[in-house]
Amino acid sequence: MSSPIVFVTGTDTDIGKTFTSALLVQKWKANYWKPVQTGLESDPGDTKTVEEFSARREHTPHLFSPRYALQKPLCPLDAMRFEPEFDIQLSDFVIPEERHDQPLVVEGAGGIYVPITKKLEITTDLIKRLQETTDRAIKIVVVARSGLGTLNHTLLTLEHLSRAGLGNHIAGCILSGPKNEGNANTLKLYGANVLAEVGHCYTVEDIEAAIAGIPDLATIFT
């Protein structure tokens, strides 16, 4: 029996999207895939981050290799300009079906409107492409900043997904950073489903509490 897929996107850069993905991998005993990785000239990459995080935890995920790995810390479209041998096509992406009996966390490159191809196709188009390659259920989790600015960025991201025909695939958002009850409540007033609030984690106890605060996977797909 095939298990579901969760696509993780963000509203901004450096908001804890990879850390949140690592938490989801542990909570749901899931595998992990980063379809497009950039910035390898200055960072080991998000797959390595999830691997190192998981090495100290109960669950050891299978880590699928990125389909594309680029050096510059830029969006995929701009990173390709420094490596002209690459020409990313949406048709290159297929959900890895090995280990389909386990959940899969797919982490996008940046936010939902990040340019991926030279045809100016964006993360939204990638999600639609991945849907075409599998009969497994796919939900989208938006990682958003907890503090100032999150209302505009989060609501615009959710509105864009809905307008793109992906509204039924939105599981909700996870707020990353110091807890902000006011922002969480305002997002809910606008119909956003706040799945969890993940504060800064400094200790093992903090991490365990963050994992425990994430809802069970079954509730994401009800």
From TrEMBL:
Gene3D superfamilies: P-loop containing nucleotide triphosphate hydrolases (3.40.50.300). GO terms for biological process: biotin biosynthetic process. Pfam families: AAA_26. InterPro entries: DTB_synth_BioD, P-loop_NTPase. One of its GO terms (molecular function) is magnesium ion binding. This is LAME_0D00320g1_1. It comes from Lachancea meyersii CBS 8951. The lineage of its organism: Eukaryota, Fungi, Dikarya, Ascomycota, Saccharomycotina.
